[in-house]
Each structure stands twice: as C-alpha cells, then as structure tokens.
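Sample intake sheet
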Amino acid sequence: ITWMKLDQDPFKDVRVRRAIAMASNWREVLETNAWSLGHGSPNPAIPAALKEWSIPLEQLPPEGRRLYDHDPVAARKLLAEAGHPRGLKLPVETTPGYGPDYMDAVQVAIKNWKDAGIETELKLKEYGAFISSTIFGKFDKLALGLRGGQSDIDSYLRIYVPGEPLNAGGVNDPKLTDMIALQKRTHDVAKRREIIYDIQRYISQQVFYAFTASVNCVGA
C-alpha cells in the first residue's frame, strides 16, 4: 500500500495520485520476489485473496483499470497536466522490518517512480517506530507499507473513514463515508457485495491510496 497526504500538495490533485499508481509496476514486484517467483495478484481496495468481495479489475471503470497498466509515459503526462512538468521530489517513509523481500519491492517502486519523473528520498524507520507512527498517518508526504491479514471485509474500508486511526492519508469524502456506512447496515449478502463493488469502483477513480500486488506463497 502507498499512503499519500491527501490534505497536502501535490496530493490534493487526483492526477498526481493517479501518476503514482500508473508509475508502479505490480508485475515486476512479483517477478523479483523470491517467494512468489512471478505468481500473485494485483489488488483493488479489497485484497484479491478475498475473492467473494474483491472486484475483478475488468469491472473497474476505465480510470481505475488504467492504474494497473504500468505506464510511466502517461504518468509523466499527468504530472505535467497537474503543473509538474519537471516531475516531483518527495520523501518516502518505510521500514526494513518486513524483511529483505519486502525491501526488494520497495526498490522496485522507487525505480519505477523515478522512470515517471518522481524522485524519492527513502527514509527508513525502525519497525516499532513505523507501526506506532507511520501507519497512523504520522509521516511527511508519502509512505510505503503492507496491509492485510484480516478476513473482515470492513477492516479494509475503515482506512477511508474520517476519525479512524488507520485513515493514514486523511481521507474525508462524504459520499464514500455514506457508502461504507450503508454496506455495514446491509444484511443481504448479494446486495452488500454490490455496494462494496461500487465502493471499489469509486475508490479506483479517486486513488486515495495506491495498491500493487500480493505474492502467492506455498507452505508445506
């Protein structure tokens, strides 16, 4: 997951947020990961492993679907349209505490962003400091981390709700807040799933956070 400070420039502009996502290359993340050996799945707002609730990428609107097509040229164009023809220079926080395979993915992200004109200064935090600060929104501009492990669908939507501690980017979108509240009150499974699909479509257009892929691992 990539967190962005939504109340600060340059991330107030959705074009910059889209450029961050389009510059990323989830396929390269999988190909360079020692566990996955190229196998894994790109993630919308609900992780792909939760198959009943995670919207298939082909069902996203065009703006959302394009986020998963690595396109540094288009990302540069978006930055230029947003008033950054020479690109951006941004600090990015993360932690080496997730291990060397994770740090390989961080290096892939930094390289791909650079190809799109987004220069980053990597700031490493000790793991304890990271999970007690960064994931709660205590970072400067941009941060990289991991999410997942929960089987509760609602846990992946709380990061968009104002006042929730893990809303690290500072999302405050009344329409989205209402949609999230509605799915919590909807007991019919099929109806709730459609609302959650609509939420993922909407989120993919707004790019409050950026997601790449999850690796497939086999344990014996």
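Comment: Residues 88 and 217 are 35 Å apart (CA to CA). The two ends are 28 Å apart (CA to CA).
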